[in-house]
Design goal:
With about 70 residues, this protein is mostly helical. The protein has 4 helices and no strands. The protein has one domain. The radius of gyration is 11 Å and the shape is globular. The N and C termini lie far apart (about 25 Å). It comes from Enorma massiliensis. One of its GO terms (molecular function) is DNA binding. This is HTH cro/C1-type domain-containing protein.
Length: about 70
């Protein structure tokens, strides 16, 4: 999976975050982002650099609201 594909899919997932209860939506987003990141072979640092945030921000997305 190319880095651009990962970013596009992450945006599509975040656009659907309102579906269901808020906590469930956040967990679903976390799970999908983690899966996409692993499938692409990217580290949190690589994802962060690709989208212009810190690695800590990417890590926080994985734990916030779950």
């Amino acid at each position: 999976m190319r880095q651009g594909d990962l970013l596009g899919k992450a945006r599509a997932i975040s656009d659907n975050r309102g579906a269901g209860k808020l906590g469930q939506g956040r967990a679903m987003i976390h799970d999908k982002l983690a899966l996409l990141r692993r499938r692409s072979g990217m580290s949190q640092q690589e994802v962060a650099a690709t989208i212009g945030v810190t690695r800590q921000t990417v890590s926080k997305w994985g734990t916030e609201g779950v």
